[in-house]
Amino acid sequence: MKTNQELKELVKLKYSEIALQDKESNQASCCGAGGCSAEVYNIMSEDYTELQGYTADADLGLGCGLPTQFAQIKKGDVVIDLGSGAGNDCFIARAEAGETGKIIGIDFTEAMINKARENADKLGYNNVEFRLGDIENMPVTANKADVVVSNCVLNLVPDKDAVIKDIYRVLKPGGHFSISDIVLTGTLPEKIRSAAEMYAGCVAGAIQKDEYLGLIEKNGFSNITVQKEKPIIIPNDILSNYLSADEITEFKGGNGAIVSVTVYAEKTEIKACCEPGCC
Fold first, then answer.
1. Are 235 and 262 in contact (CB under 8 A)?
2. How large is the C-alpha radius of gyration of the chain?
3. Which of 42, 69, 90 is nearest to 262 (CA)?
4. Domain that holds residue 17
5. Is 56 buried (19+), middle (13-18) or exposed (0-12) by CB count in 10 A?
6. Is residue 278 part of a domain?
7. How many helices (H) and strands (E) does the chain have?
8. Where is the Methyltransferase domain (predicted)?
9. Longest C-alpha distance within the chain, in Å?
10. Cα separation values, 121 from 36, 117, 125, Å
11. Residue 107, C-beta contacts closer than 8 angstroms, at least 6 positions apart
């Protein structure tokens, strides 16, 4: 059993490699890892191409949702993107926040940060920046962001509770997040859950949906809403790397559902007290 630090190093190594892969390889696999499928194309991600701000050079095909579509970003907002990769979600967020907004992408993979900065330079954006750091301990001051977004990243972090705590810290009172992620509504076979490669591929690191939503509530967020949910189907030719034919049949006929969810939640605004004697 790998330690949390070993898992993080595994993900960092894999995503350094993914930064150099083409989009087609990433989309035909599980978040760029776990082997490619010849059965289906675009296992996890959705079509970004019609969204304003979409940048083909920044689209690595790694997402599992469209959080920016649901994030209610307004002109002038400060937006933080967790696990910003090559920058695509940041550039889409900038289209919403405008030139008066501020977009901060955070990623712990140096290769991704370099790729994102190159893309921002080519686009000439001076209000989009990328910072190297862990999303459990962001290089951002408290009460900074109006909106936090993330696309298929929290499932890769062993300590999800720490990430949610830090999201609460960096959001302004009254701010909110919209996060797309992979969760479970059943039981994964142990061979998949223990496979390091499948951890880097977004699946083995997923937790139960109820537990995921519970962590958000426990950390003080309110108005928690599942904005979108869709099943994730892992093709047989990927599963066969880990399971026998009988085990694949059992898994697909059982209760091991893997789903992509987009979750919204708010950091409750602390209102000034104006009643006599209440402060």
1. no
2. 19
3. 69
4. 4-267
5. exposed
6. no
7. 11, 9
8. 73-220
9. 71
10. 32, 6, 6
11. 83, 84, 85, 113, 116, 130, 132, 133
In a domain, 276, yes or no: no
Backbone angles phi, psi at 193, to 5 degrees: -65, -30
**Continuous H helices in 38-159:** 67-70, 88-97, 110-123
CA dist 63 and 237 (Å) reads 21
Q: Which amino acid is at 272?
A: A
Distance CA 244, CA 50 (A): 40
Query: What is the chain's pLDDT, residue by residue, as a tens digit (279 residues)?
Result: 678 787 787 777 777 776 665 555 444 444 444 554 454 434 556 677 778 888 878 877 777 788 999 999 999 999 999 999 999 999 999 999 999 999 999 999 999 999 999 999 999 999 999 999 999 999 999 999 999 999 989 988 889 999 999 999 999 999 999 999 989 998 888 888 777 666 665 677 889 999 999 999 999 999 999 999 988 877 787 788 888 888 888 878 776 688 889 999 999 876 655 555 555
- Residue 191's Cβ-count burial label (10 Å; 0-12, 13-18, 19+) is middle
* Helices 4-18, 110-123: inter-axial angle, 10-degree rounding: 40
Cβ-contact 75, 103 below 8 angstroms: no
**CATH code of the domain containing 22:** 3.40.50.150
